[in-house]
Amino acid sequence: MSAANSIIECALLDAPQTNMDKGANRRGRLAPKGGITRRLRFLFRFSLRLIAALLGVGLLGYLILRAGPHVVWKQLHAVGWGVVVIIMLGGVSQLVKTCAWRQAFSCDIARLSWRRSFAGQLISDGMGQFGVAGKVIGEGMRISLLRYAVPLPNALSAGAIDGGLHTFTAVLVTVSGIMATLLLAPLPSAWRAYALLLVAGLIAVVIVAGVALTKRWHLIGNAIRAVGRLPGLGKWVTGKQSIIDSAEDNLLSFQDEAPAAFWATLLLNLLWHVLTVLEVFIILRFMGARIALGGAFVVEGLTKVINLVGAFNPGNFGTYEGGNMLIAKIFGVTSTAGLTLALCRRVRILFWSGVGVLSLAVIKRADEARLNASEAASVGGAGMLSVETQNGD
Fold first, then answer.
1. Which CA distances in Å does 161 have to 28, 48, 172, 325, 327?
2. Lower CB count within 10 Å: N or C terminus of the chain?
3. Nearest CA to 79 among 339, 332, 299, 277?
């Protein structure tokens, strides 16, 4: 999914031109019927996401009321300054993820500063909290920060490589967590059947991805071509196919052409998951829960299942907290502790998302100032040339 999102965002980079074309249509003639249809579809999808988000917020409020606000506050107070530790650990995690992403580039990134890379990672991660659409938009925003530093195909392939390896490592953690739960926890038979089906599906995805990488099957490009055969999508696909094919070629050849960078990206993504396990362990320990690192690993593995289930709920509000409460009860921890765990992790997400927004604003302002200075220098140079030409005449 992450690799596909990295490919889809190329449409977002063409948004300014699309807006200009729409403006020309409005100036020259009435908007075409297709434009009205697209707007209605957009409004419909937006309304559905808004309703889902509101229902999620309502569910979150209900869970807090059911657990007892005073009990939740007591648990949060027990964590205390541990929240600062979690925020700092979250910053280390974001730095590790930025390193993994930078390793995935197959071109020279000397012009890509660490500040811009870190801000792009924070923005992408923050937007990714809002489900599938958020991941696509977040990837588009991250890559839009690179347009003056690296070529677009390389930016797309780096996002696909990093996203693919991140998904691969997440699947490993998820499968391990589910299998440990099946061995340790007394689950109902129906739940065991669902868990085994999920494990089988995830393993199948890993096998297909591994074979595709080994055999160099162009699964993404062929899938996009199949989409292009649908009515009304052929023109869009034709304009993007060359970029998609170039990005997928870089993705498939990355392991052979840069094995050190490949393994560095893989290991850094694994380290990111290790840090999330440590985060769970620290929060639960601060709340007085007796849990080992192995238990925290299992909790994190099951939490990724909750994230997968809640991917179509913008922000995963309510479903994330409810899932954590359920996981906590499975392992003998109070449901309130599970709710507090989820809330503490949300605090970390909000903090670093806010840092990302501020960083983006600073970078955009610096880019605008640099562009204005460049235009002023061009105008000044043209004026001097005109004066010299007149003096020569």
1. 43, 31, 17, 34, 31
2. C
3. 339
Q: Write down the residue that tokens 């005449």 correspond to.
A: 393
What's the rounded Cα separation, in Å, for the pair 281 and 241?
Answer: 45
Give the residue carrying structure tokens 């027990």: 78
| Alpha carbons 382 and 62: distance in angstroms, whole number | 66
**Close Cβ partners of 310 (under 8 Å, ≥ 6 residues apart):** 131, 316, 319, 320, 323
Q: What is the pLDDT of residues 275-322, one digit of tens each?
A: 999 999 999 888 888 888 888 898 898 888 888 877 677 777 888 888
- Token code pair at residue 369: 């100032």
Place of tokens 């059947």: 193
Angle of the 319-330 helix axis to the 293-309 helix axis, nearest 10: 140
What is the rounded CA–CA span in Å between residue 35 and residue 21? Answer: 11
Which residue in 305, 298, 351 sits closest to 328, CA to CA?
A: 298
Question: Who's near 111: CB < 8 A, 6+ residues apart?
Answer: 148, 149, 150
Residue 328 identity: A
pLDDT digits (tens, 9 = 90+) for 149-175: 888 878 888 888 888 888 889 988 998
- Inter-CA distances, 158 with 10, 161, 164, 385, Å: 13, 5, 10, 43
**Is the Cβ–Cβ distance between 97 and 283 less than 8 Å?**
no
Q: Cβ distance 57 to 319 under 8 Å? A: no
Q: Is the dihedral of CA 100, 104, 110, 116 positive or negative?
A: negative
Residue 130 φ/ψ, nearest 5 degrees: -100, 40
**Residues 67, 72: Cα–Cα separation, whole Å:** 7
| Of 277, 386, 349, residue with least CA distance to 128 | 349
Query: pTM of the full predicted structure?
Result: 0.76
